[in-house]
Amino acid sequence: MRKRRPTIIDVADRAGVSKSTAARALAGGENILPETRGRVLTAAQAVGYEPNHLAVGMRSGRSGMLGLVIPDIANPFWAEVARGAQDRAAEVGVSLLVFSSDWDPQKEENHLRALRRARVDGAIVNPVSDTLDDLDRFGLPFVLIGSSAERFADVSSVGSNITQAVTLGLDHLVAKGHQAPVLIVGPKSRLARTRFLNAVNRHCIERDVDPAPLLIVDGEYTLEGGREAMLQVLDRPHFGHVCVFAANDMMAIGAMLAVRERGLSCPEDVSILGFDGIPSGAFTFPGLTTIAKPGRDIGARAVESLFDEIEGRPEHGRVYMPCRLIDRGSLADLSREPRQMVG
Amino acid sequence: MRKRRPTIIDVADRAGVSKSTAARALAGGENILPETRGRVLTAAQAVGYEPNHLAVGMRSGRSGMLGLVIPDIANPFWAEVARGAQDRAAEVGVSLLVFSSDWDPQKEENHLRALRRARVDGAIVNPVSDTLDDLDRFGLPFVLIGSSAERFADVSSVGSNITQAVTLGLDHLVAKGHQAPVLIVGPKSRLARTRFLNAVNRHCIERDVDPAPLLIVDGEYTLEGGREAMLQVLDRPHFGHVCVFAANDMMAIGAMLAVRERGLSCPEDVSILGFDGIPSGAFTFPGLTTIAKPGRDIGARAVESLFDEIEGRPEHGRVYMPCRLIDRGSLADLSREPRQMVG
DNA sequence: GCGGAGCATGGGAACGTTACCATGCCACAT
DNA sequence: ATGTGGCATGGTAACGTTCCCATGCTCCGC
Predict the structure, then answer these.
(1) CB of B33 under 7 A from strand D?
(2) What CATH code would you report for A162-294?
(3) Which one of A22, A127, A193, B275 has the lowest number of neighbouring Cβ atoms within 10 Å?
(4) pLDDT tens for residues A247-304?
(5) What is the reported pTM?
């Protein structure tokens, strides 16, 4: 037989006051005798009172919970995002309901329904569906995250700053003496591919370089996709040091495996630059030099924006979080060596 | 101005019935005219009714939420556990409140308090504190997970089967022609170290081998810890092929880096067997052969046990989930080669 | 000396749901 | 014809909290 959990009435009784007074004391409100408050606090401690958030949410309309819908909590990047959101939410005593959608619109819809029913105060969503119907029906404040959020204008969203990231990467390559990197990018269907290539083009034009001759190779956003793309590159006739900029760390690591498979070595024969910043980039040999997306910051900032949204001061714009370079050794330094004239 | 969310009364009014009848129809209960139920369901659909779980939880005493407190959601193993728990919970329409304790008893306590206040129906906890005080005070059904749970007897807990895992690993090593592996284990203070070594001893005795001569090397449970341990092994005078069984994938990967650092190669000169099954074990070259802990299954089984606990049919014992071997190539096959006589 | 301001406290409604009991109706057996 | 049982439905209390208003008291100024 599990015993009943103490309520504010138990506290009030023990302190010899009414439940209104007990509530006032616990809320730290005004108009209460310090001595009375002390009695109530002592009583609450004594009976082991814990406020019932269900009741609070019911009465106040604020459940103190937020929803987080990401593709997969077991994916390192999304786990980082979740962690950032969690930490920021915990600072203000808010709990997070976490769901994984597996890039499946049906699951996404189910999860959003669960969030509506749980009466979360708002939600952070990496949208899978092409439309915002489910989210509109959501009828609650929400903030989108990730690159897929960029399809929707006039909605609050948080993502990484691809333009800045690409600039960072390409400038670093140039500083290390590399020219015209081969670009290993995702499949044509993916929005992220277009945005990555656009950023590269913009950067080249800004630096007065013609982006047209850059070699672009396709592949799935996976280890195997990167490996195949790299094999394709190595099997083309080529000359001198090869430099590769992969749109994703998985592909970059796959490319590194391919290099070794062909009996070449990184970074002596091939330089590889990744993009994501997954921790396991440190597990390869040499460690993967990459541009890290600020997953944790994105999660934290999304919670921040969501609070704004909830408080009724929405920004309705996209926030771009800056990326940073992690230098681990997969890039050769050719800047001291004699330049190879091309063309 | 955000408009009020429809309640069961709105549904009842629109269907022209009382809220009792509406509730019965929605609950799919007995004693209701099929035609009436139809009208109610249509009305619910029309007004976009979503049951308020806060109110349900308040009235029924079941919030439909579970708590999950793990060390770090950004750690691949724990992310897998979370994913497994999530999926199992979602099957029955239960939501998960996820918290990261960072192995910090203070944070653990705060998270448990948050769970109590949210009135979750139960919690799954990887315990950090040495005592169960916080959990006892929890006053709710709970299930422990992970190896740190084994400190506590007479409590429901779920973890991986270390004994079976070690048997699997050592038998596999023998099948590949290896003898007397060097054991790279964690620091003396850790409980997991003892349990790992005990399992090795038991296995040796069972297979009629003297475990005494096995070389045991210490290190932190990190990449660097594994690297240093391996360097130590390689710098000792040794002879022939070296075989290493690391108690953790991170250490195994660190060991692999050390091998390459000394100009040797894996698996030609050194064979390495890991333990954990983190996905990034596939990123090394060669891929890490390892014994995978069933993180997802552990999470799912913990939810299962927690349901039992909640329903009042507690088992109060430890469940050991079987591990499996992932063969990726970091072990040389010496079984066809001439045996090296030792001693 | 008395009215009213100001403060500490108490009483009660409301949030949305479910569980229980009451009501009214029809059909069937006596 | 009348009691009885079963079934569809309605009414209402209760879950634990907060918020608003009422009450009673003290203290101050006229």
Answers:
(1) yes
(2) 3.40.50.2300
(3) A193
(4) 999 999 999 999 999 999 999 999 999 999 999 998 888 899 999 999 999 999 999 9
(5) 0.90
